[in-house]
Amino acid sequence: MKTAVPGSAPPVAAVQPGLPREVYVLSVVGGCVMLGLGLVLPVLPVYAATFGAGPARIGALVALFALMRLVASPFCGRLGVRFGERRVLVAGLLLCAVSSALTANASSYGQLLVFRGLGGVGSVLFSVSALAMLLAVAPADRRGRASAVFEAGFLLGGICGPALGGLLALVTLATPFLAYAAMLLAAAVLTPALLRTGRTAGAEPGRAVIGLPALLRDRRYVVACLAALAQGWVLFGLRSALVPTLVVVAWRHDVSWVGWAFTLSAAVQALLIMPAGRMVDRAGRRTAMIAGTGVAAASVTALAFVDRYAWLVALLCVYAAGSALLNAAPAALVGDVVAGRAGSGVAGFSMCTDLGAVAGPVVVGLVAERVNVPAAFASGAALLAVAFVASCTLTTVRPTRRS
To answer: Is 349 within 8 Å of 228 (Cβ atoms)?
Structure first.
């Protein structure tokens, strides 16, 4: 079997075994975490308003979660080296559970800030450790599909969570937070048992460590981080912050129209995530990265010129198709670089997404106010275009099959 050069997908065998069990366990746990986030996110602004918080303070509360993820990310790699990703993952789940339970019993806005900040720290401990474990146990020729399975769990949880959260909020506004805490506590208890056997060497301390200088010298890692930054910027700055304002304020539609647009695009992404994973492994990382960044950049560019809701929904669905590839390909590239070694590789990759999530809404909002909305969309398109050009510089070979 031929050996792939940097930036390529490993050769594909004619008959490939299934993915390791740990991939599915991590996907289910990730889905539960995202389901829980979906439960509380729609309720959080209303809950904060009961403590006298206005729009600015509610915005700060929402942004704090991503900010704490960003601040805590650099420590995740060191903790994984010292204690092993499996222990750090469980600690993250427990911290999120405690945070959610405390939030349900908060008595002031200041307490909400503290408790949500703890949740951000727990979230990044879980997500970085889970992705590091996934990339460690997934075989090189199946990393694209493993990343797709992992992201599918998050997508399904994110689609189902908001509707369920709305129903639970009919009981009391604190109920979704308590349900989230119970779900995380159950996951923290069951996960160690489910990951105790099998290929969990990547979860243990004492492995070889790859440092940041070596990572930054590898073009594959830099390209993956550029794509992650662009994704965070577009998803949180453009889609989550700007699109709702455009639909509700500029076009004077009901807020439910925003929900339908997001639900349809999320469904498209969920349908395409597994084919995207197969493409990453079979066609190669470079091909998938070029296609993903190209489609995403084109759709975001076109969004700057739409003036009708139907076109907005259609372009969000096109973006979802590119995003499906960008959920699988960059993670597979990082896995190729890290190759099961501990260190800051996965944490740095995660930081790029969080940086886009923190800076994107602020910059996009300022550009939209002081210049115009098309210029705000252009900021995301420009980042994706940079990632597209960088993806074209990757080297690759065509995957081969042995009969």
So the answer is: yes
Its pTM stands at: 0.80
Answer whether 194's CB lies under 8 Å from 25's CB.
yes
User: How far, in Å, CA of 101 to CA of 242, rounded?
Assistant: 31
The string of DSSP codes covering 57-109 is: HHHHHHHHHHHHHHHHHHHHHHHHHHH-HHHHHHHHHHHHHHHHHHHHT--SH
Question: What's the farthest any 2 CA atoms get from each other in the chain?
Answer: 67
Cβ neighbours of 54 (radius 10 Å): 9
Measured CA to CA, the distance from residue 69 to residue 129 in angstroms comes to 13
Contact predicate 194/67, CB 8 Å? no
Amino acid identity, position 246: L
Choose among 77, 263, 88: nearest CA to 166. Answer: 263
Phi first, then psi, for residue 210 (nearest 5°) are -110, 130
Q: Beta-carbon neighbour count of residue 329 at 10 Å? A: 35
Please list the pLDDT of the chain residue by residue as tens digits (403 residues): 444 444 444 443 334 568 888 899 999 898 888 888 878 877 887 888 888 887 678 777 877 888 898 899 888 888 887 888 889 999 999 999 999 999 999 999 999 999 999 999 999 999 999 998 888 888 888 999 999 999 888 888 777 777 787 788 888 889 999 999 999 999 998 888 887 644 454 555 555 667 778 888 999 999 999 999 999 999 888 887 788 878 877 888 876 787 788 888 888 999 999 999 999 999 999 999 999 999 999 999 999 999 899 999 999 999 999 999 999 999 999 999 987 666 678 889 989 998 998 888 888 888 888 899 899 999 999 999 999 999 999 986 444 443 3
Residue 291 neighbours by CB under 8 Å, 6+ apart: 279, 322, 325
Q: Where are the beta strands (DSSP E) in 227-368?
A: 342-343
> Are 362 and 234 a contacting pair, CB within 8 Å?
no
CA dist 367 to 48, 353, 360, 362, Å? 27, 20, 10, 9
Give every CB contact of residue 224 below 8 A, 6+ residues apart in sequence: 329, 330, 331, 333, 334, 337, 349
